[in-house]
Amino acid sequence: MSPVPRAAPSQRQSILDARAFARALQRMAVQIVELAGDTGDLVLVGIQRRGVELAERIAGLIERAEGVAVPRGALDITLYRDDLETVGPKPVIGETRLPGDLTDRHAVIVDDVLYTGRTVRAALDELADFGRPKRISLCVLVDRGGRELPIQADIVGHTIKTRPRDRVEVQVQELDGRDAVDLVRGEGA
What we know:
Elements: E1 11-16, H1 18-36, E2 42-47, H2 50-66, E3 72-75, H3 84-87, E4 106-114, H4 118-127, E5 135-143, E6 155-159, E7 167-171, H5 173-176, E8 180-185
Parallel strand pairs: 2-3, 2-4, 4-5, 5-6
Antiparallel strand pairs: 1-8, 7-8
Helix pairs in contact: 1-2
């Protein structure tokens, strides 16, 4: 009897180190201001978990460069997911907080990784409960491809091609003690 072949172990590859991470956020902040044209109606909304920290940092960069306060908020899309039944009987729900009515504002959704597009679809559904923004833009640190819905980011910090079994792991200083993005190749990938 021949031995059963073993799957290759996962492989980790650094995509962004702390310096590249910081440069990506700086570029994203500049691109948001250019896209908005005017920061007067701008609101940054981070998707829980790491999108919130990224939105906070990008807002800070815009504030330092432009000399204006940028309102920001947080979305927890858990209850808006189209696969809520797979999450479990008692999903952990984080905080949703927005700086008032979004009507006639330019809302920029900020997330760490764009993959299938389903998280963004859920965020769009939830934002609709808080008014009707005049524009909604999407800003992501990493676009890994693999869309299941016709959604694309307006602003992307870094683009990589991945396979379905791969994982993109984003770490932020506030939660993880360091800024980094790693690609973890899945078994058999």
